[in-house]
Amino acid sequence: MADIDRSNVEAELGPGERAPERRKRSLLDSAIVEFTTYGIGGARVDRIADRAHSNKAMLYHYFGSKEGLYLAALQDIYAGIRHAEDRIDLDISEPVTAIRALIAFTFGYYVDNPGFVRMINTENLHKAAHLRTAQDMPAINRPILTKVAAIIDSGVAKGIFRPGIDPLDLYISISALGFTYVSNRHTLEVLFGRDLLAPEFVSARLETMTDMILRYVAAD
């Protein structure tokens, strides 16, 4: 899912797609704009419907309630990053190259999709109360850990990586190094006077992240 920061959302009818699917997609995209801008408390269903060129009756028909729509939007953004991860070319036989590619993708996704970052922060403010009610979230998120584990195992087998690295802990570390940089960029810019999303600083941050992770996984 690409980040959506425009005032009007219209979904184009794709091959084999029906109009109801297009209307539902438009409402969902509009909701992501609304929730990432105002949070769940400040979001308004009338703005969501208007932006999608629909109406509240249709919104309730598809999603039941504002909370149901928020959960659908939350699931959609997680599915978006997981689908994008599936398209990364990770050559397990080259574990260092694979780790570099994963770090670059993860950081790049956060930079390119600030709405994703904002929505995850919103859900954490609510202690994941809505996400806990979602179905199959562990199954959706499991494949990335399987890939990370395979990269680690390949590196260990080649003597490049040290043994005993937990795949989830490693993925959390990669995520945290990039996520915090994007989520806190506004306060950091005020405090330290640096435009963190300027291309040269994004590139420098990626180099820092990559160096830190490769040093962490390296065999002694």
Task: Give me some keywords for this one.
mainly alpha, 10 helices, Tetracycline Repressor, domain 2, 220 residues, single chain, Arc Repressor Mutant, subunit A, 0% strand, 2 domains
Provide the CATH topology of the largest domain. Tetracycline Repressor, domain 2
Listing every helix as H and every strand as E from the N terminus to the C terminus, the arrangement reads HHHHHHHHHH
Report the portion of residues in β strands: under 5%
Tally the helices: what do you get? 10
Biggest pleated sheet: none
**Stretches with pLDDT under 50, minimum 5 residues:** 4-17
Helix content: over 70%
Dominant shape: globular
What is the topological layout?
Layout: H1 19-42, H2 45-51, H3 56-63, H4 66-86, H5 95-112, H6 114-125, H7 137-157, H8 167-183, H9 185-192, H10 199-217
Describe the structure.
The chain folds into 2 domains: about 1-80, Orthogonal Bundle (Arc Repressor Mutant, subunit A), CATH 1.10.10.60; about 90-215, Tetracycline Repressor, domain 2, CATH 1.10.357. The chain has about 220 residues and is an all-alpha fold. It has helices at about 20-40, 45-50, 55-65, 65-85, 95-110, 115-125, 135-155, 165-185, 185-190, 200-215. The chain starts with 18 loop residues before the first helix and ends with a helix. Helices cover about 70% and strands about 0% of the residues.
